[in-house]
Amino acid sequence: MSEAPFLAPDGQTRCAWAGGAPEFLGYHDTEWGFPAGGDVRLFEKICLEGFQSGLSWRTILNKRPAFREVFEGFDFYKVAEFDEGDVERLLLDARIIRHRGKIEAAINNARRAVELVEERGSLAAYVWSFEPEPLKVPEVVATSPASVSLSKDLKKRGWKFVGPTTMYAFMQSMGIINDHSLDCVIRDRVEDERAAFVRP
Q1: Per-10-residue mean pLDDT for the chain, 200 residues long?
Q2: Which residues bind Zn(2+) (predicted)?
Q3: Does 1 fall in a domain?
Q4: pTM
Q5: What is the number of structural domains in the chain?
Q6: Residue among 138, 181, 141 at smallest CA distance from 165
Q7: Is residue 46 within 8 Å of 170, Cβ to Cβ?
Q8: Binding site listing for Zn(2+)
């Protein structure tokens, strides 16, 4: 059974989680689920979902400006050039999540992203190729067949911190699926944007 919808200050309902913290409503209404086709944006989100593993999204959202600063705006060509000195520098920066494995994974994944762009033309073309047929009713699940497939393929390519649950959250947030609840006022807006979105 899904949670009761959140009644926002404007008197309209949103997904239940949008009421979980003050920062969530703006993120929910303007970013979450809207289709994204930019390689840097997609790479940023894969990295941030990896950093979020075991933590709350609120923590990551609040630290996102600092993450963007220290990871060169998530330009994966620049991050791919990071070395051990950069790892040590990032481990000393209290503004981000100081987890060696996750920091090293972000750098590794930047290098894998460069390889993937060389092969597929863009990161967007690759991740959107895993878009499933839309469900009429969103499911409250942690993974999906599409997220399992994406996770397996990325791992085969050497990516780290890209498990099926992490990739499901990524697909939700980047609009590859529309998981806004049926009674959420934003759902139809997202669906309109997905309909107009030109798949890469």
Answers
A1: 80 96 97 97 97 94 98 98 98 98 98 98 98 86 95 98 96 96 96 96
A2: 15, 28, 180, 184
A3: no
A4: 0.95
A5: 1
A6: 141
A7: yes
A8: 15, 28, 180, 184
